[in-house]
Amino acid sequence: MVPPPALSGPGGTGTSITKFVGDGLVSQALTPGSTTTYTINFMNSGTSAATNVVMTDNFPTGVRPDVSSVTVNGLTTGFTATLSGQALTVNVGTLEVKGTRSVKVKATVDAAEVAGATWTNVASVSADGLPAKPTTAATVLVGTANVVYDGLAGQKHVVQGAVVTLCDPVTLAPLVLDGTGIAPNPKNANPFMTGADGIYQFSPFLPGSTTPIAHFMITIVAPGYADRKIDVTTVPQANPAFTSSFVRDTRAVAATTPLYNVTLTSVDGQPLARSGAFTLVTSAVQINNVFDLLGNLPLFTVRPVTVTKTADHTQAAAGDKLIYTISYANNTSGDLGGGSIIDVLPAGLLYIPGSAKIDGIPVTPFVTGPQLVWPLASLTVGVAHKLEYAVVIAPGTPAFTKLTNKVTVGGSIPGTTLLSTGAASVDVFVTRGLFSERMIITGRVFTDVGGSGHFKRGDAGVSNVRVFLESGEFALTDSFGRYTFPGVRPGMHVLRIDPLSLPEGISLFRDFRYDSQRSATRLVHGLLDSGLIQDVNFALSGPPASAAIVGGKP
Fold first, then answer.
1. Distance CA 220, CA 193 (A)
2. Are strands 272-273 and 280-281 parallel, antiparallel or unpaired?
3. Is 143:275 a contact under the CB 8 Å cutoff?
4. What percentage of the chain carries pLDDT values higher than 70?
């Protein structure tokens, strides 16, 4: 009786028939439209020749094999190759005792494939009188993997000099890894520093282990970027094809499965990258059926938005006006989306309406209690901006009080709901001035459409009207007819409307009583109550209007 042939891996009896992708890899990341080479290695480890030896490979949808590219042991003749749909069949004929064959075929990832998809592929080899025997699996991850990059700039800005470490999840001590890896880290060194291409590489196996490390932490440290801490879990994926051993970088490694799922979870509050891509997500990321791949890792600058804040005086008395200047810029390597400037005034400071300008353009904030908010459409990288606005120190603010004013400027990180922010603050100390107690006088100039003598529904504010104090100081009304004298000395004051500033069709009432709102001249008693805000309105004669009436030029 003639001893039978036996099909095995190139390592001999008991080893698995191997399948690799790329340059001897179990997993490879490929961008849509790119091409790779699959390699199937097998041997006749029996004691008689194997006849009619056939390699069959059913390629997954999304990966297109090129039958014209098939070679056997580097030759293009001496075999037959056919393609039916996604099924490639290569008949290598007779395989002699101890003979080996290496079948190679090129395949292309469809251009329409979505980054993050994985295509796992197992071939088989059969012969006369022998059942088909499966190969180990090879996986293509659509997209890219294992790149450290600037999270705001994306793929165009990889990070060189980033130190990536696989750590114990509790102690954060670096793990001692199996000494066999692949380029650019063939010794599987841990930690590993990225080169000019930003690529890092680990084989997450402990010495002597046949399965990947189940739970570990990735830490990343790079100059100019915030430190990262990412939790990683791996789950081996059982496959009956892997019952003996497979070959990784020419070294036989006993294993029941070479593929595993990877889950990455941020524990530092910073976004992660979507599987196979560089777009940012705030959720955990899972990469399925891979080997020696751990995903792209985004880094973020330490101070993505720089902010400074100054006041024109560091010491001032109650009633004094202060000018705040906020300078800010996006110093990341990518534009930020919509955000805001949020400024919180401490007790003792009052915002002066109409005083705010961003880059010289008047911009009115949303005012909610002590909080001032200016929405921002975007923050373009490298562009500096300046916000200026005025406040008054409220009457009654005690001397020696420190007024700390903090501002936060932020923009949204593209692809996430997170904000990239910067903050600054400035202190102003309240002193006892010549007039340590001041009053605030406010009021409105309006057309008395209803004839009540008081501002009511249907009346209209008049803008750009001069209101004089007896000292010659004046204020102009805003678009709602409002005016403010933020800090005047205690005592009696006289307010007067300048008739030359009234618009056409608007006139003064002939009322000369100092206590009448229809009078062009008003007396303010100025009681020595520093907490009292005087509200003095002026009623004018004029037609009704649906909006504020524009006054004359000052």
1. 9
2. antiparallel
3. yes
4. 90
